[in-house]
Amino acid sequence: MAKKKSKKRDRIDQVTGPSSTDITAKVKHKKKSKKRKSNNDPSSSKQQSSTSLAQLLKKHRGVAADTAPPPIWKDTRTNNNSSNSFLTPKDNLQAFKECLQTSYAGFHYDKPEALPSSLHNMFDSSFGGMDKGGLFLYDVVQPGKKRLTRTSVTRCLVGDPGSTYKYLGLRLFSHPWTDVDSNGNSIQHTITGSSLKKLGYSDKTTSALISMGCINSTLTKRSKAMLQEFVSPHVNPVGSADYNLTLVNKMESIATKKDLKQENTYGMGKTSVGWHRDSGLRDFSSIAVYHRKSGGAL
């Protein structure tokens, strides 16, 4: 290694003229000045803080690649008429807790009544407006980078203006859930949707998008409260819950949808979305999932 370094310096001497000692001193001086500049740069300190947080959380929680898949569970109760292939707290509380410890560390389930009834009504109205506006579409993705396939559900991405989401080789562009200024930047605390109408969205679709942004704010606050109550006592600091995107899926019932695939890993029958790890998310950020079927929230 020492010989390689000295040869490299000799070549620099021949081209530039100064001695290798002078060049080395200049390089060191330049490195020091860059280091001094980065220490005074707020964005640099913020990046270092983010890196140290990620390292701390990896130490305490591990990463998705190290997370074991959920254990296979079968309902073997003799007094149950229909055998379930999925596990809920009502079926076996102890088995459910063990499953959370194995594969869903930090998971917390909220009953529908834990959220205000106005949120459920707002979601129904928003979902209906987006549906009538024609925002739900099938996407063509490339799982495993092998073949193209159409998604089993129609979807719509809503979020901060200009935000995108890459999933299985496909990049989705979001519909804005807030007004934007002339440069396309978000205008906070505005519920008129005037700029969205100028972009060509109808009144009903605009109202639906703005409502979805309000729902996102409610879920953000709820997630942060859950983090402080259930996660922060064990791991501090906690990850982010500042959601800037919402992927809304429209799933048809099994009776209506005939081309659903069999879920082979856990024997759950035909499913819209099978077990998978989502690699397109920020490390250690929280995820809020709002699941509502026709007739009420789950």
List keywords for this structure.
two-stranded antiparallel ribbon, Jelly Rolls, globular, 11 strands, 298 residues, 39% helix, single chain, alpha+beta
What is the CATH third-level topology name of one domain?
Jelly Rolls
Unreliable stretches (pLDDT < 50, length at least 5) are 1-39
Order of helices and strands: HHHHHEEEEEEHHEEEEE
Question: Mind summarizing the main beta sheet?
Answer: 3 strands, mixed
Helix content: 25-40%
From the alpha-carbon coordinates, what is the Rg to the nearest angstrom?
26 Å
Named CATH architecture of one domain:
Sandwich
Give the CATH H-level superfamily of one domain.
Answer: Alpha-ketoglutarate-dependent dioxygenase AlkB-like
CATH class value of one domain: Mainly Beta
Q: How large a portion of the residues is in β-strands, by DSSP E?
A: 5-15%
- How many DSSP-defined strands? 11
**Total number of helices:** 7
Provide an overview of this structure.
- This protein is an alpha+beta fold and 298 residues long.
- The chain has a domain at 115-297: Jelly Rolls (Sandwich).
- It is 39% helix and 12% strand.
- It contains seven helices and eleven strands.
- It has helices at residues 2-16, 20-39, 42-61, 93-103, 117-132, 194-198, 203-231; strands at 140-141, 149-150, 154-159, 164-167, 170-173, 175-176, 245-250, 261-263, 269-271, 292-293, 296-297.
- It has a three-stranded mixed sheet with strand order 6-3-7, with helices on one face. A two-stranded antiparallel ribbon has the order 1-2.
- β10 (292-293) and β11 form a beta hairpin.
- The chain is globular, with a radius of gyration of 26 Å.
- The model is unreliable at 1-39 (pLDDT under 50).
